[in-house]
Amino acid sequence: MKPFLFLSSRSEDVVAHNEAAAFARLSGLEPGELRWHRIDQEPLPALNLDEFSGVLLGGSPFNSSDPEQQKSAVQLRVEKELMQLLDEVVDRDFPFLGACYGVGTLGKHQGGVIDRQFGEPISAVQISLSDDGVNDPLLAGLATRFEAFVGHKEACSTLPPGALLLASSPSCPVQMFRLRENLYATQFHPELELEGLMLRIEAYQHHGYFPADQVEAVRTAARESKVSEPGKILRNFVLRYAR
């Protein structure tokens, strides 16, 4: 089987390693079947997409909607390289699944409106599938309503032209969309389980995802959630596109 490419942009080693391990475990990939590149640490090398089964993009502290003058040199480089990669991915309709940051990158690349109207604090939210979502192969086997972990400052307030809305939550209308046949983005985190969320709460407690003085309340609420469905999306992605 050709490997899948996983791109991440988290500078905290413990969080980055947990995220990569979660993507591999929940997707059912064996060692060597997920090729990981930390795009914030090293520039993206020249890629031949024909060597891969698909591309996975993890979440990020970067926000596509930030004013350009406020973006760091690393963020500007990462965004430029991702936009160049998406040029080919979209042109070929090459299998792509972006989690959280995927909405900001794929959505912006394809002309959607990415802004701060529908940010959600770190928490578990109720996700509801649309009729298109119920019938989408990446959501096969999932309940029509399920809990998922979120934590984002920006979101998609207007879908890109031609996008299908697959899932929503009460506080964020666009939780998942598809473009063409094989290009997906989720606002929630399909890879995120309780252990990983606790690491992120610790790492990002002063980054504005929730009031820092409420960290214990955020942890308590997370422990009381019942998140079990989202990881099936990663497994479905691999089952559909492995080649």
From TrEMBL:
CDD domains: GATase1_1. Pfam families: GATase. One of its GO terms (molecular function) is GMP synthase (glutamine-hydrolyzing) activity. The keyword Cytoplasm does not apply. Transmembrane segments: none annotated. Residues 45-194 form the Glutamine amidotransferase domain. It is an enzyme of class 6 (ligase). GO terms for cellular component: cytosol. SUPFAM superfamilies: Class I glutamine amidotransferase-like (SSF52317). Its EC number is 6.3.5.2. Keywords: Ligase. Signal peptide: none annotated. Gene3D superfamilies: 3.40.50.880. PANTHER family: GLUTAMINE AMIDOTRANSFERASE YLR126C-RELATED (PTHR42695). NCBIfam families: PRK07567.1. This is GMP synthase (Glutamine-hydrolyzing). The lineage of its organism: Bacteria, Bacillati, Actinomycetota, Actinomycetes, Micrococcales.
